[in-house]
Amino acid sequence: MATRLREIPYNYTSFSDREIVIRLLGAEAWAVLDELRGQRVTGRSARMLYEVLGDIWVVRRNPYLEDDLLDNAERRAALIGALRHRLTEIEKRRSGNESVAKLLVAAHEAVASFERWFDETAALRKQVKKLLCRHTRCDNIGFDGLSRVAHVTDATDWRVEYPFVVLTPDTEAEIAPLVRGCIELGLTIIPRGGGTGYTGGAVPLTPKSAVINTEKLIDMGAVEEKSLPGVDQPYATIRTGAGVVTRRVMDRADEAGLVFACDPTSADASCIGGNIAMNAGGKKAVLWGTALDNLASWKMVTPDGQWLEVERIGHNLGKIHDQETATFRVKRLDDAGRQLGEEFLSIPGKTFRKAGLGKDVTDKFLAGLPGVQKEGCDGIITSAVWILHRMPPVARTFCLEFFGQVRDAVPAIVEITGLMNAKPGGAILAGLEHLDERYVKAVGYATKAKQKGINAGRPKMVLIGDIVGDDERAVMAATSQVVKIANSRSGEGFIAVSAEARKKFWLDRARTAAISKHTNAFKVNEDVVIPLPRMGDYCDGIERINIELSIANKLELCNALAEFLQGNLPLHLGDASLDKEELIGDRRDQALAAIAEVRSRWQSLLDNLDAAWPPPEPKPLPRTRNYWHPLPQPPRPVPVKTWHPLAASVFHKLQDHSVRVSWKAELKPLLETIFDGSVYRPILERIDAIHGEVLRGRIFVALHMHAGDGNVHTNIPVNSDRYEMLQTAYKAVERIMHLARDLGGVISGEHGIGITKLEFLRDEEIRPFRDYKRKVDPEGRFNKGKLMAGSDLANAYTPSFALLGVESLIMEQSEIGSISAMVKDCLRCGKCKPVCSTHVPRANLPYSPRNKILGTSLLIEAFLYEEQTRRGISLQHFDEFSDIGDHCTVCHRCVKPCPVDIDFGDVSIAMRNFLRRHGKKKVSLGTTAAMAFLNARDPATIKALRAGMIGLGYRAQRLGHKFAKSFGLIQDSTRRPAATLGRPPVKAQVIHLLNKPMPPGMPSRTSRALLDIEDGTLIPVIRDPKRAAEDSEAVFYFPGCGSERLFSQVGLATQAMLWHVGATTVLPPGYLCCGYPQTANGNEDRGQAITMQNRVLFHRVANTLNYLDIRTVLVSCGTCLDQLEKYQFDKIFPGCRLLDIHEYLMEKGIRLDGLQGTPYLYHDPCHTPMKLHNGTKVASALMGKPVLLSDRCCGESGTLAVTRPDVSTQVRFRKQQEIEAGIAALKVSRGETPKILTSCPSCLQGLWRYTDDAGVDADYIVVEMASRLLGADWLKNYLAAANAGGVERVLL
Q1: CA 399 to CA 495: how far, in whole Å?
Q2: What digits encode the pLDDT tens for the residues 830-856?
Q3: Contacts of 1055 (CB under 8 A, 6+ apart)
Q4: 854-867 pLDDT per residue, tens
Q5: What is the value of pTM for the model shown?
Q6: In 10 A of CB 1004, how many CB atoms?
Q7: Which residues, 6 or more positions from 502, have their beta carbon under 8 angstroms from its beta carbon?
C-alpha cells in the first residue's frame, strides 16, 4: 500500500505532510515521524498530532482566521487548550517510546510558539500603528485579511509567508520615512506594484515583512522635449510615478504621436516601478529594447532609507548593448531633494546582455547599477523619466497561419527577422509575436484561412507582427515579402491596414493567460531566450518533451485501467440473478490482454523515440487460452530503408502526426466492443471516468514568444492539488532550462529569477549579486532572503480546494462550493483592475476582482475549516464575506478583459444570496426603502413612498448637504476618502450620505399619473391621431422604474420622440419593475418571481393586441435591457428585437443639426443600453456634433449610494477626476456650462451630484433631444396632445 502524501487535515495547499512537518517541527521531526510510519507505529496518536499540525498550519496561513482569534480571546484559548489536550493524550499513549517523546517536545514548542505568536502580533501591530502613522495616514496601514492576501502572492499564486502589514503611501515623499520606520521596527520591506510578476519576485519570504504598495504613486507629467545630459538634440520624455499603470503611459505617449517602448503583455495591470525592477520588455523590445534601454533617469529609496537618483549620461536613444560604454550619474539626496554626493558608473555595453540575444535579465548584479533588474532587493523605485520614440507614420500588421509541420514553419521566424534586419526600403519590424498550436486553441483563435482538405483545422503556428516605415510602398512591399515567406512554408498571410483591423489582429495575443483555464488556474511559467538560428531546435526539444509526457500519461492510463479491471467490476444486473463472474466470462481477460498489447506498443514507441522508423517490434505477449481480438490489428506502415533520404525517426513520425498514440483510436474501441451491451455499461462509464481522471493529470508544455528577439514563454499548466503532477512539471522545467542553456540561450528574458528560477542559476552567475547585496543591504532590509541561497520553491506552496474527500464533499453540497467554482479559474493577472469601479487605489479602494477573489478563496477556506472542526463559524467571517460582496457595482465590466471569463458581478450576486439565505446579510434602511419603492405596484403606495422619499427625503438631503458643507464636515471625505473595511460608524455614514447633493427639481408626479394610465388592468396604446395610420410602426416600450417612477421626464421624453416619429407606442399595464435590482441586491428569488410574472403578463398583452405587429421592444435603461434579454421576447412578440430608444432614434435618422454652444460629455453607464453601436458614437450622431466620453462609474450604481454610501464616495472620487479631465479636454469657453449626457436613470441621479463640485449640468440624451427638437415646452405640449385623444386604453 502506497504511503499517503496528505494525512494532515485542513491542508488546502499543494504541500504534502512532509513539507508541513518540516516547516512547523523541523527536518529532524519529519525523519522521526517518517521512521515511525515505516514501522507502522502510528495510529490514533499520529492522527491527533496531525490534528495539532493541521490547526496550526491553517491558522498561520489564513489572516481571516488569525484576525478572528486575535479579536476573540475565548475562541483562541479554546483552540490552544484543544491543541495541548491532544498532545497530553499522545503522551499518555506513547508507552515509553523515545521517538514519540522527541516528536512531542517539538510539538509542544510549536504550540507554545503558536500561542506566543498572537501576543507578539498584537503588540507589534500597535507599535507599527504608533510609529508609521507619523509618516502616512493611518488608513494607509493595512493589517486586514484582504490587504494581506492580495499581497501574499503575484500572478504565480506561489506563497511562502503572509506579509505582516501592507503600506499604501499617498505620495512619493512618504516612502523614505516609511522605509526608515520599517527598519526601526525590524520589518523587511517588499516593494510592490501591480502584482503581475511571474517568478515570485514580490512574494514575502519572512513573516515580519511590510509590503509597500506603490499603486497610489500615479503622478504622470506631460510629454516634453528635454535636453538629456550628453545628448546633442532634445528628445521626447515623460516623467511617471512608480505606480502608474504601463498602459496609461502608452496612451499618453500615443496621444502625442509617440511610442512608449516598454510594453509587456501585462501592460493593463503592471506598474512602472515593477517594469524597472524587473527590466521588463514586450513586443516593441525588438525595436527599442527593454526598460533599461528606455530609461533617462529613475529615483529610489535605498536600504539605509536615503534617496538615490540615477541618471543616464550620453543616452544612445536605442539598445544599451549597442553602446560601447554606458555611463550613469548616481546622486544621493536628502528628503528635501538637496544633493549629498554623487558618483559615476561606467559600464561596458556588452555587460547588459549575453551576446547575440535580444533580452537577458539573468545578471542580477548588472555591474552594480542600482534598482534595475534587482527585483526589489536593493531598494524601492519611486519615479522615473523615460524617453519616448517616434513611430513611423505608416504601419501594417500581418498575421501568418502555418498549417504544415512545426519544424518546417519555425524557420520562417529566422527568415522574417533576417529580411527585416536589412530594413528594406526603410521598413522596420516593430514586433513579431508567436503562438503555438496549444495557445491557438487556448485563446479561442478564429482561423482566418479558408483551408480545405488535409490542411483543414487550426493552424500549427501563428505569427503576428508589425512593419512600420515612412514610405507606404516600402512597408507594403516588405509586408508582402513576409507573406510570401509564409506561403513557402505551408502558411497563409493576412494584412491589416486600418487601426481597428490591426487592433483586432492583436487581440488574441493578449489572452495567452487562458492556457491554464483547463487546470485549476495554476501554471509553471518559464521564459527563456533562445538564439534565433537555434529556435527550430528548441521547438523540437519541447515537442520531444511533450511526446514523452503524452505517452507516459497514456501508459499511466493503461495501468489504471488494468488495476480497475482486475478488481470487482460493476454491472447493470437488472432483475437477473446470475453470478457476476458468469456474466463477465472471459471479457476481463480479453480486456486485460488488449490493454497489455496496446501498452506494449506505446511503450515501444517511447523507448525507441530516437530510433529510425519503424521501431523494433515489441515482444509478443503471452496470450490466454481463449484469446479473442475483437477488432483487426492496425496495419503497420511499410518500412522506409534507413539510408533513404526521406527516412525519419520515431520521434519525427510522432511529431508530424503520421503516427499517433491515441486512446480514442487504439484502445477505447476495443474496450467498447468487449463490454458491449447494457449489462456492461457501468464498466464503460467507470473506464471513461478513469480516463478523465488520468487525463486531468497530464502535463504538456505550451509556447508563445516574442519571436523577434527569441524570448520564448514556456508554460506548463498544472493542477496544483496533484502533488505528483507538480513534481512531473518540475522535472520538465529542469529539462527545459538545460535545453535553453545547451542551445546558447539564457533562462530568463523578462520575467526575472525570483523564487521559481533561482535553482537554475549557477553559483558563478548569482555570486556577484549576492556580494553586492551583502555590501548594500547586509541586514536584508529589502526583500530579505530573495535571490539568496535557499530562497527557491522549497518553502513555497499554492492553495487548492480539491485535496481531501471530506472538504470536497462539503464544498459540493453547499452554496459556498458553487461560489468557489465561479472563481477557481482566476489567473491573478490583474487585467480586471483598469475597468473595475471598486479598484481606485488613490481613494483607498483596492477591491479589484483579483483581490476580491483571493479574499473570497481564503474566507471559503475559513468556512470550510470551521465547518469541519464543528467549532462554529465566526460571525466576523460572514461580515468580511459581506464586505467583499458589497464592494461591487455589479457592472459586469470585468468579464470582458478576463482571459478566463470570470464575471465578479455574478459572483457578488451569489455571495449576497448566500448571506441572505443564511440570515447574515446586513440590512440597510436606505436599501429597504429603495426596494419597497421598486417592488410596489399599487399607485397609492407609490405616490406615498414617492412623496416621502423624493418629496421630503431629497429635499432634506440637499438641506443637510448645505449645512454640512458650510461647517466643513464633508470636504475631507470627498477629497481624501477613508478606507472602507467593514461598515463605517453611523456618523461617518451620515457624512457620506450628505457629501454630494441629490438632484433638485424632481418631477412632482410619475409619467403614468400625468397621463392617467396607472390602472394595471388597462394597456395604454399611445399614438398621434392626426398621423396614425394602419401601417404605422408599433413598438412596445418598457420604461422601467427609473424612467417612470423617479425621473418621469425620461419616460415622457421617450414617448414624445416616438410620437414625433409617428410610431404607435404600447406601454405595459401598470407599474412594473424588470427584476434586476432585486437580483443584484441578493434577493434572487424575488427577482425571478418578478421576471416570471412579467413574462406571463406580456404574453397576455401580446394576445390582447394581436392586431398590432410589434417588431421592436424599446427600453430607456441599460439594466432593464440586460434583464429583459432573459424574457425571451421573440417568443412573446415573434420576430421582435430588443433595442434602446437612442439607437432606435439614430436608426430613424433623428439628429440635432447646427447645434451651437453647449459642449457635451457622454457618461456611458455600467449597464450600457447601446448594444449595437458604441454609446459615444450614438450620442455624437444624435447631437450632430462630437461628444467626448467620460468614463468610470458615477457612484450611484442602483442602490449602492444608500446601501454603502462610503463605497460610493470612493467610486465618485475617481469619477470626479474623469469629469474634470473631460471638461479640460472640451476647452469650454467663458460663459458656457458643459453638459454631461447619459442613458441611465440611476446615472442621471448620480451625475447630478457633481453639478456643484465639477461645474457641469447633467441630462438624458432623449430629454435633451426632446427639448431641442420639440421646443422648451415639449413636456407641456406632449401631455396636452396625448391627453386630448392620443391615449387608447385597452382592457387586458
Answers
A1: 6
A2: 999 999 999 999 999 999 999 999 999
A3: 1007, 1022, 1037, 1065, 1278, 1282
A4: 999 999 989 888 88
A5: 0.92
A6: 12
A7: 395, 396, 397, 466, 496
